[in-house]
Specification:
- Keywords: Centromere, Chromatin regulator, Chromosome, Cytoplasm, Cytoskeleton, DNA replication, Kinetochore, Leucine-rich repeat, Nucleus, Repeat, Telomere, WD repeat.
- It is found in: Chromosome, Centromere, Kinetochore; Chromosome, Telomere; Cytoplasm, Cytoskeleton, Microtubule organizing center, Centrosome; Nucleus.
- The chain is of the alpha+beta class and about 750 residues long.
- It folds into 2 domains: about 200 residues, Ribonuclease Inhibitor (Leucine-rich repeat, LRR (right-handed beta-alpha superhelix)), CATH 3.80.10; about 375 residues, Methylamine Dehydrogenase, Chain H.
- Helix content is about 15%, strand content about 30%.
- It is built from 11 helices and 40 strands.
- The strands form 9 sheets. It has a 6-stranded mixed sheet with strand order 1-2-3-4-5-6, with no helix packed on it. Strands 21, 22, 23, 25, 26 and 30 form a 6-stranded mixed sheet that branches. It has a 5-stranded antiparallel sheet with strand order 7-8-40-39-38, with no helix packed on it.
- The radius of gyration is 28 Å and the shape is globular.
- It starts with 5 loop residues before the first helix and ends with a strand.
Amino acid sequence: MSKITTELLLERAVPRSTRLRKIETLNLSKLQLKTGDLDPRLFSRLRHLQKLDLSDNLLDKFPNSLTLPDLRVLNCNNNQLEDVTALKQFPLLEELTYENNVYLTLNDDYKVMFLLQNLRLLNGKDITKLANHVRRVNSRKLTSKVTAHWEKFFRDQLPEKYTAEQVKSIKKKFLKSVQTNVVYGPSSLSEFTRWRVKMIAEEFLSYSLGLELNTDTETEEKMDEDEEESTESPKEDAEDVSKVVVTPRKRKRNRSKSGSRKKRSKTQANTEKEAVLNPKKSSEVQDDPAPDKARASNQPAKEATPDQEAEGTQKNGEQFPKGQSNRRSSQLTGEQKSQEQENGVVNLTPVKNSKGKEDVSAEPLHFLQCHSKGNSREDFKTQLWSCVFEPLLDCGARKDPIVSSSRTVATCGGESVCLIDCETGVVLKKYKVATEEFFSVAWTTLPMVISDSRKKSHNILAAAGRRGIVKLIHVAADFCYGEIKAHKKPIATVCFSPTQETHLFTASYDKRIALWDIGIPDCDYNFKASQLLVLESFSVPLRIALVPTCPEQYLLAGCEEGCFTWNIKLEKEQKNRPFEVTFQFPDEEGEMTTSHRVDGLAFLNDDVVASKSSKPGCIYLWSWSRSFDTKGKGCQRTVSAVILAELEWSTTDLSYLTLSTCPAKEHVFCGDEKGSVWIYNLSNYTTAWSSAKAKRSDKRIPPTQILKWPELQSNGDHLSEILINNVITDPTFTYLVALTSVNITAIWKKS
């Protein structure tokens, strides 16, 4: 492709022109243009240009000095734009479209609404009313909060006579603190809010102290990237009154009796046939493409489009609902509340305890009913099975310098997958596949090519379930870009390799565990998935875990009829492999046996494994290395697990109440059949267990604490017979998320 020349501009003018200064409409679409092709010196001669079409090119940003003083209409659809702040150089812009730029988000929509005061249409939608709110009401609220933050925490820190160094230090602390603590609006707009807060704070300092404003956006972003976030907040941060926090009501112990003690199966969890309701076509994911648009499984599939903001403009011209928690219910308009209720996001409030005291050191934040079938408010039967926290990203200019650990969790159950902000309880996105029942989700981070062969890290979510199909979702782009038909029977669980980001393990009811290379999608989302291994099992694999010290060599699985290990090293030629070791555990009579259901399995650290079997009232802690080293030579050897300790747990014989661990804090978590979460702090034991001569503890270790299920009300009725199917925490044990058998996602925050 040739560079832009005067001749090209004259030829592409509509109508064709003989002089650049006479051109009013210019079409530069489908020319494979890159940012470097937009020569500011040449464009500065287009003094009367009013309409510019740059769609279907390869632009990743705009040069800062195009000098188009009369530009009114701009089309940037189907590019690779990463930032919109350079558009402020077109102050007369009235119509702007930039759909199908996968790296732009709702935060960018709000930025252009603020920066372009004359903007009326954004992506074909009239945004006049919303833009006025962003420019006036939003700015007024944030300015008030920024000013209050300065007055309370920083004004007295500045002496009457101050030096330049003192001012510089105060400015740095204030900007960091105010971005951390001033909160307004939904968390999905947190990037925009921090952007505006920083802008307002710098303007405030300039006005109050005579400090110079930093107007170089790129410099600001680089400063944010380079600045390391402290793990401890300043004292004044914790006391900031600008944070609006509604304290949840006190909780009451659940005195209901436990439900049925019969064993249950995932594939039989939902027995009633219910009609699938479609309140809004755009509010749910269509699983299959239109009949006249058949596609291969590795081609982009626009069937899993997530829910987004209830107001404003959305990508691809569609509008989706969002959920919010009772924490922010007082801030919602009647229209927003109605939108939430229409789309099945229900917030349940704990009933106040008569004594008015908390009996655990965790604060109950949110109890969400967001996986309802057909968005029914009466659905308390959908089983929720899997949840996992989103990993943090280091992605250049979009790196978030404020958040020190992820608070976004992906949950699945029934026909939907949800992304929830644990702090606010907002359901950020929701994916639906009407014919699916999701059993498992897993995250990976892929270095995706964006332009000029540059790579940028993006989080990809894999979701799988009853249909044996893995959905691959690029969350930031709100796009399910493909699927892998992994098994002919349901998939029980999935997990990614911690060392090979494209390697995905899928464990299925066909009694096989498959290893896939999902590939890395190109800029058009074309990708190629390939099967690398098939691990044969004698029974259905329920939980899988890669051995931390050798994740490329051994995989451990808890199955319906035992606990097994496979050698997964890819250097071996054999593609189909039997298990290498099966582990024996004591049964109820104390006899060693290999025939038992292992429905909970996780590593507490590099060596200690926590597993839960069918023996009532017990979770085993055992040494991987000491157990595996006894196998000697040969394949399919039976060895006895070297048990280090037993954890005291519920005596229920119900299955599929799985456990999890928090290695960084040396905790084990497991829910029970009464809605309680058992928490074990094992930091006082792990040092002794690391010794090769460590002996088994004589007594069972009791839980450090038990989180009792609060008494919840829905339409005046009390919910009881709650099973905790799964419970996890984020890596820092700030948030605890529990998934239940009654379609409720419960979120606690550590006090």
